[in-house]
Design goal:
The protein is mainly alpha-helical. The chain is built from five helices and two strands. Helices cover 66% and strands 11% of the residues.
C-alpha cells in the first residue's frame, strides 16, 4: 500500500494505491480501472506531446480515479464525487494525473515483486 500527498489547487490531498483500488473503483463506478487508466495514460501521452486537450470522457475517468484514490486514503471525504470535486477551486489534470499515474505504477511494481517473492517461497 502506497500513499502520496498531492497539492490540488490550494489543498493538500492524500491519495493511496493498493490492491483494493480496482475493487473499490468497480463497485463505485461499474468500470474496469485497468482499462480506464490505460486509456487515460495513452491520452495523457498523446495530449502532452501534441499540446491538445483531453476528451470529456478522459476528464471523467481522471476525476473518478483521483476520487477513489483519495477516498482510499481518507474515508472522511464526501461519499458523492461531485461534493468532493466541489471543494476545489481548480483541479488540474496536467498537474495531478502524472502523480496519480506514478503512484499507480509504483503500486503495480510492488505487487509484481510480491508475487515473484511468493512464487519463490512456494517453489521451495
Amino acid at each position: 500500500m502506497l500513499s502520496k500527498t498531492i497539492k490540488v489547487g490550494d489543498k493538500e490531498v492524500a491519495f493511496r494505491s493498493s490492491a483494493t483500488i480496482p475493487r473499490l473503483y468497480r463497485a463505485k463506478f461499474k468500470r474496469d480501472i485497468f482499462k480506464d487508466l490505460s486509456k487515460l495514460e495513452s491520452s495523457y501521452k498523446g495530449n502532452s506531446e501534441a499540446g491538445s486537450s483531453f476528451a470529456i470522457e478522459d476528464l471523467e475517468i481522471f476525476e473518478n480515479v483521483a476520487y477513489i484514490m483519495a477516498y482510499h486514503a481518507d474515508h472522511n471525504i464526501p461519499e458523492d464525487i461531485d461534493d468532493w470535486l466541489d471543494q476545489f477551486e481548480m483541479f488540474s489534470i496536467y498537474e495531478v494525473l502524472p502523480e496519480i499515474l506514478e503512484l499507480w505504477g509504483t503500486n503495480l511494481i510492488t505487487d509484481v515483486e510480491s508475487k515473484k517473492n511468493l512464487n519463490a517461497v512456494i517453489a521451495k
